[in-house]
Amino acid sequence: MGEAALHNREDEALAQAAVDALVGQLALAPKPGLPDPRDLTARATRRDHSALRWSARALLPGLTAMAAAARRTGEPSARLRAELGAIGRSTEHTVGLAGGGHRGALWTLGLLVAAAALRPDAEPADTTALAKQLAAHPDRRAPRRPSRGSTVSARYGAAGARGEARAGFPHVRRALTALTTARKQGACEPQARLDALLTVMSTLQDTELLYTAGPLGLRHVQAEARGVLEAGGTATEPGAVALRALDTDLSSRAWIPRGSAPLLAGALFLDALGSSGARRTARPAPTHPRTTINP
């Protein structure tokens, strides 16, 4: 196999691992307030759940291109940041044609895929540190119109998606730690992933929740997510009861903690890459026959 073909396969493997992580996040249930396989119409998102899974796969070419760009550039430079931004905007258009969604996931996974391509042997903390360096560069060619997220961030002083990246994805790292801890404590894979999601929800300044529910609503959701974890997590009966109550509460209010889902996908991506001292290879996230916990 030639060097170019080998690099192409490595880039595609990284991108596929990221898409698998996103699809794994979508397949998880019950996710409080978020679209999951129980929903034919994905509740308040008004997007068919199968369409969300389909459009997730449309990220693959763009993420592959991001990995290739990072490998060619070789450093987390302003030049690479500009190229990632251009690829990201093109990929958003492609995903829109496939059904839409996943803008937050594209931002999170794009930076992490590029960082992983820069240093394939890095530990997760080093990968997020490289992503932080990339995010620190301004994307000078990005449209100047304010987004809803940036408007809410400015109004309430929330970090938002950009702030999360510029801080080195602290919630991705917390989710990864929660995932590992839950597994060690005997949780099955869906329970471990739900505990990781709730860990993110318990502290994230979710701009979507701030927009729809305000600061009081955000604090309410954070407190309820912490309550599930403090009850023992989703692997325990008290935790499972608290999870069902939170799910019912968010569904009835039509509150969507949308910011948490891409960060869980980021954690699943880093988890799939592994974190041993040996050179890592991109591989799909582990599949499990059950990704749903019976409510």
Automatic annotation (TrEMBL):
Region (Disordered): 129-156
UniProt-listed Enzyme Commission number(s): 2.4.2.52
Superkingdom per UniProt: Bacteria
InterPro entries to which the protein is assigned, alphabetical: CitG
Transmembrane segments annotated in the record for this chain: none
Reactions catalysed: 3'-dephospho-CoA + ATP = 2'-(5''-triphospho-alpha-D-ribosyl)-3'-dephospho-CoA + adenine
The entry's keywords: ATP-binding, Nucleotide-binding, Transferase
Listed name of the protein: triphosphoribosyl-dephospho-CoA synthase
Naturally occurring in which organism (per UniProt): Streptomyces venetus
